[in-house]
Amino acid sequence: MKKKTVTLALLESDDRERFILDNQEAFRFGAMEEFGCRDDHMEEDGEIISRATIERCIDGEHSEALRIFEDGKPVGGAVVKLDPVSHHNELELLFVTPHEHSKGVGFRAWQLIEERYPETVVWETCTPYFETRNIHFYVNKCGFHIVEFFNCKHPDPHGPETGEGFDGMFRFEKRKVMKQQEISTQ
What we know:
By secondary structure, the protein is of the alpha+beta class. It has one domain (6-184): 3-Layer(aba) Sandwich (Aminopeptidase), CATH 3.40.630.30. The chain contains 5 helices and 7 strands. Strand 4 (88-96), helix 3 (105-116) and strand 5 form a beta-alpha-beta unit. The longest helix is centred in the first third of the chain and has 20 residues, at 16-35. The chain is globular.
C-alpha cells in the first residue's frame, strides 16, 4: 500500500466555512466517544467548540490558520498563534477528521507545523480533560509535557472557562531542545 502524503497550506477564504464545520465535527466526535449522547460539555447548539471560538482563533492577531491535506484532500486543520518576539507560540486548534484518526495524519501534520516554524522556542496548547486521545497524542507522540490543570479551583487566568461546573483543561508545553551551538550564540 502506497504511503499517503500529508501537506499543510494556509487556509483559503473560500474554505473557511468547511474548516469551521470540520473542526466542530472532529471535536463533537471526541466528546461523543467519551460521553455518548448525554454530553453536557457543549458550548452552543450541540457543539463542543463554538463557531465564535473557532473564528476568534482564526482571526486572532498573529494567528495563522492551516489546512491539513492528505494526497490533496482536506482532512483537518490547525490554527497557530505566533509571538514574533518571544517565539513562545501556541497551537490553538488542531483537528483531523474522524475517519482519518489513528492513521498518522495528525502526527505528520504536527511535524510539518514544527518544520514550518523553526524559530519556536516553546509550543503551548490545551485540551479538555476528557480528550484522552488528545492527551495521548500530545504527550506520547508529540513530546509535550503537561504543565498545568485548569479547573474550578484553579481557573485559567486567560480563559473564558471558569467557575462552578467547569470540568477542566490540561495545558501542555513543548520546549525546543537547543543545541550547544545555539546556546553559545545567545
